[in-house]
Design goal:
9 strands; nine-stranded mixed β-sheet; 195 residues; globular
Length: 195
């Protein structure tokens, strides 16, 4: 049985869950996701499987960065990374506050898209992040050209803080406070299950 860290039920789409990522067991799957043309903003399109595994092993060994797999009705469908912004390049672009956590999010490519899936998946990610009582704000830094992600982020309460220079991109720094997520989604952040 999969060790599930978090799960919630979407009234229309069913069960979403988040579990720890295993770099070796999940490596080939992750490679197919991060090298897909739709994941171009992840800047990993030229990596082979071994390099992707190595990348996620390094995250697994980190004390300030963690990666997880998101499931929809038991099937892996999205990738989540959470990290300490003070220990990451984004921390040099704004004043990190106590309770800030950084987040990266990627939905797996599919030939059978489901209406509303991506929003339900990111709402799951956000609700999961806010189950940690110490988390007050979620910080993201997508590429300024990634208009689809900016629109998606807005649907769960992110507010643009400004354009910032990152090592490999110009990013749209956006921040979502707990209260902004709850207002955007009408979802309290304390009622989901963690196991």
């Amino acid at each position: 049985m999969i060790n599930t860290s978090y799960r919630r039920t979407d009234a229309r789409l069913g069960e979403f869950a988040i579990r720890p990522l295993d770099p070796d067991a999940d490596g080939a799957l992750l490679h197919s996701w991060v090298t897909h043309p739709k994941a171009s903003f992840w800047e990993m399109k030229d990596l082979d499987v071994a390099a992707v595994v190595g990348h996620y092993r390094a995250i697994a060994d980190s004390t300030s960065h963690e990666a997880m797999i998101g499931l929809h009705n038991g099937q892996p469908t999205f990738l989540l990374e959470r990290y300490d912004p003070a220990a990451a390049p984004v921390g040099k672009t704004y004043t990190v506050q106590p309770g800030d956590i950084g987040m990266h999010f990627l939905v797996a490519p599919t030939d059978a898209p489901i209406s509303g899936f991506t929003r339900a998946a990111i709402a799951t990610v956000m609700a999961f992040l806010f189950t940690e009582p110490s988390v007050r704000r979620v910080v993201v830094e997508p590429d300024v050209r990634n208009a689809a992600v900016h629109a998606l982020n807005a649907t769960v309460g992110f507010r643009v803080a400004g354009t910032v220079a990152m090592p490999t991109k110009r990013a749209l720094l956006s921040i979502c406070g707990r209260e902004h997520f709850e207002a955007a989604t009408s979802a309290p952040t304390h009622s989901e299950s963690r196991s």
